[in-house]
């Protein structure tokens, strides 16, 4: 009798698993049946907002449903990230993620959401940031900026996206390596930070070449350095931070993330759709007009890159926490 009872329980368990798997596969085959919401956790006007809207402009053709861009700024990207991490894992609520809120804050401070809380769907592209300053700043190069900071301790005001955001973390490392002191002022997005610099409420911020260039051409801003190991082909005359004497890089990626627990069949369907979006000539043209390139990565490769950066920043963060 005991053996028969065990066999019956085992059969019931197998049938239940088959039912669940069948339900997931059925949902994945039907997915999507309604619009998909793409959360951008910043204020309007920044590179994430602009890129997300370029994605949305061609999404319906490749995903079968429109993508609706919804801004949820605040908390240095944490509010939008938390919203998606806590959403139903059904593929209909996604995050347009980036390291400023999905790598540095969770790695260093345990705030916002990282690779333990969200699933990578794909990376759309990545770029080094550049350091922009107001046009009448008293320095023309990054090296001159550092020298000015040494002569004027605590006077440089840096517009960031919040405590332990990518920009904040970058400048914390600069402070530690050079001995300077800057004042960090938090804003809700790259657009707001840039506006603060142009308006004279801050002296500098990190951002995308694409976002800064119109204001550089209008002589409202100046770009003093690139935060990659090599110069930006769009502005080849601007040196890197490393050329200015400090070995620090900071790369901004833009990628699609889903709540943890989203079934892999749904993730695969989203991945296939976003891959087609990344290859769409109209989308590629929009991105290139912004001065960017598309550098698509699928979920597995993107997860490795994201997790690697997360673990590396955890280690770097220890030098600040253990002071």
The top level CATH class name of the largest domain: Alpha Beta
Order of helices and strands: HEHEHEHHEEHEHEHEHEEHHH
Catalogue the unreliable spans: none
Second CATH tier, the architecture of the largest domain: 3-Layer(aba) Sandwich
Predict the CATH topology of the largest domain.
Answer: D-Maltodextrin-Binding Protein, domain 2
Structure description:
The chain is of the alpha/beta class and 323 residues long. It has two domains: 33-127 and 252-321, 3-Layer(aba) Sandwich (D-Maltodextrin-Binding Protein, domain 2); 130-244, Periplasmic binding protein-like II (D-Maltodextrin-Binding Protein, domain 2). Helices cover 47% and strands 18% of the residues. It has twelve helices and ten strands. It has helices at residues 2-30, 47-63, 78-85, 99-102, 104-109, 142-151, 166-178, 190-198, 209-217, 264-279, 281-289, 299-321, and strands spanning 36-40, 67-71, 93-97, 118-128, 130-134, 157-160, 183-186, 204-207, 221-226, 251-259. The strands form two sheets. The chain has a five-stranded mixed sheet, with helices on both faces. It has a five-stranded mixed sheet with strand order 7-6-8-5-9, with helices on both faces. Helix 2 crosses helix 10 and helix 2 (47-63) runs antiparallel to helix 11. The longest helix has 29 residues, at 2-30. The N and C termini lie far apart (66 Å).
